[in-house]
Amino acid sequence: MGWGQGPSVGIGLLALLAGIGALYVDREFFIPIALALLLNALLRPLVRGLERLRVPTVAGATVVVLGLLGGLTAGGFTLVDPVRTWVSQVPASNETAAHKIEPAQHSLEHVSQAAQAVTEPGSTPPAAPAPPAVPLWVPKTRCNRTSAAERSCRHAALRSS
């Protein structure tokens, strides 16, 4: 590609962006047109098949559109019971989600309080929660005896460290 083709590519890109912008701004007008063209492309082969069977074009298109509407209506009636079941389960799902989110909400409240304390001059941040208990580390010794002998060996190891 040479330098001479650069302006034409730039103009093409600007035209593409302008077209996309026009489609976005006038989407209330263009979306029904695009849907009509899509349905025409999808349903035209069915109408042609009916034309081969000597059905007039208008009658074939009517049959195809009414069949499509009937199929959509039947699908809607089929989905009524599952949707009712799902809608009846929504309150229980909300309660379960609330219980699962509750620990995170407490953490976020603590972070929010700390952030407020940092942004407000002269205030002290909230106290941090107590750290978890850490087990005492006992060094390994050479004593493998049990009972009183083992305890005295451990005490000797603790005193020496």
What does this 3D model show about the protein?
- The chain has 161 residues and is mainly alpha-helical.
- It has a domain at 11-92.
- It is built from four helices and no strands.
- The protein has helices at 6-25, 27-52, 57-119, 147-160.
- The longest helix has 63 residues, at 57-119.
Briefly say what this structure is:
The chain is mostly helical and 161 residues long. It has a domain at 11-92.
List the helices and strands and how they pair.
Blueprint: H1 6-25, H2 27-52, H3 57-119, H4 147-160
Helix pairs in contact: 2-3
Give me the number of helical elements. 4
Rg over C-alpha atoms, rounded to the nearest angstrom: 38 Å
Q: Distance between the terminal alpha carbons, to the nearest Å?
A: 79 Å
**Main β-sheet description:** none
Structural class: mainly alpha
Proportion of residues in β-strands: under 5%
Shape: flat
Order of helices and strands, N to C? HHHH
Q: What is the β-strand count?
A: 0
Mean pLDDT: 81
Helix content: over 70%
| Poorly predicted sequence stretches spanning 5 or more consecutive residues | none
Label this structure with key terms:
single chain; 161 residues; mainly alpha; 4 helices; 76% helix
